[in-house]
Amino acid sequence: MTTFDQLLTEQIGHEFAASQQYVAIAVWFDDHDLPQLASHFYRQSVEERNHAMMLVQYRLDRDMGVTIPGVPAVQTEFADHTEPIRLSLEQEKRVSEQIQALFAAARAEGDGLGEQAMLWFLKEQVEEVASMATLLTIAERTTNLFDIENFVARDMPSGAAVEADAPPAAGGAL
């Protein structure tokens, strides 16, 4: 098994874990009567699930075999409204590092197809980190939760539309 192959299997698990963490965050915001933040993180959960399924489809298309890793327990309790957003930003930065490692492994192993497949994910991570960093900045600037809710409703993407250039997801994107 190549390093790229191993990291790709691990990344499927990381994406599913990110999806589960976003569900937990969404539920926390829902439980605290913050519907815009809850909706945003429910959408993020679906997006991360779709990313996992894109990697599954890639493995299927390349006849690499597929193993679905388990996911660790997620954090469900938070001290305040900024903590789950801070956790989300840390998670997106970690995923960015993981995707960069996948790209580097594909390049080191001369796997041009693997390298090409990771380019979309690298572009996606730039957007994810920037978006979450902005949300955290807004959340840290105010104690008025209605300001954050209004920002999310007004300025954060509301659709879970799959980009035209996105890789196909096994079973179809949700």
TrEMBL record:
Binding-site list for Fe cation: E15, E48, H51, E92, Q125
One Gene Ontology term, aspect cellular component: cytosol
Ferritin-like diiron domain span: 1-143
A molecular function GO annotation: ferroxidase activity
InterPro entries recorded: Ferritin (IPR001519), Ferritin-like (IPR012347), Ferritin-like_diiron (IPR009040), Ferritin-like_SF (IPR009078), Ferritin_DPS_dom (IPR008331), Ferritin_prok (IPR041719)
One Pfam family recorded for the sequence: Ferritin
One of the protein's GO biological processes: intracellular iron ion homeostasis
Keyword Oxidoreductase: yes
Superkingdom to which the source organism belongs: Bacteria
Residues in coiled coil: none
Record key words, sorted: Iron, Iron storage, Metal-binding, Oxidoreductase
Name of the protein this chain belongs to: Ferritin
Organism of provenance: Microbacterium thalassium
